[in-house]
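task queued by scheduler; priority normal; single chain, no ligands, no partner chains; default sampling; output format set to structure tokens
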Amino acid sequence: MIQQALDFQAESDALFALLDPLTDQDWERKSQFKEWTINDVIAHLHFGNYLADLSLRDGDAFTAFLGRWAEDRKQRGNRAATDAWLDGTKNRTLLQRWRAFYLEMTPRFLDADPKKRVKWAGPDMSVRSSISARLMETWAHGQAVYDLLGQERRDGDRIQNIAVLGVNTFGWTFTNRGQAVPTDPPYLRLTAPSGAIWEWNLPAQSENRIEGKAAEFCQVVTQVRNIADTTLQVIGATATTWMSIAQCFAGPPENPPAPGTRFRRP
């Protein structure tokens, strides 16, 4: 059993509960993330879920589908190509389509071999990494919706999966930018939502460390907050540089949001 599959469903369920009461007008409100609407966010998440599930079920079909969609994206752009794939589905119909599919795909990941390699737009990855990435994307893009609606998020300890991705992509963050990977990863001490303490890169270092709330660390590595907008304690050159460019998701280098531009609205 892959626990991350259950965590993915729980995170998706939490976002669904936030979205379920919305009116049609709410779905076209623009978020602080590239002015994406709530429709844009859920369309993106549903499309990513579909790709991950297709890759699990049939790698050749995944490659063929992604190639066709990539050609359409060149002509229309990312969001327009996704909208075309959805046949213009929006609002509550899109909400129900997204929910029905993530509930359908979860058991397939739950019962899969966690070490099986599956194809992706970037390098191949394990099934466990694939569903962990879907959890991370759901949590990260969901933050834009929580912020837009002025809702305080109640995180669970399942965000440890995102923290692990953040730690595991320390080297990737630098390599992706063509920079040398520092040889001294900082000690990381995070307080989980439950109050538990999570630590990485032991033994502890006093001059090269990051300490604070796990949720804020996850916000930084997923680039939904600038490090300046958190209470994380960051000490040392390596720790400071990492937190200024951290990126736990695939794709070309992305810069974090500017200070003060991503926040929970009143």
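post-processing summary
- The beta strands are 117-118, 125-126, 187-191, 197-200, 209-213, 233-235.
- The chain has a mean pLDDT of 96.
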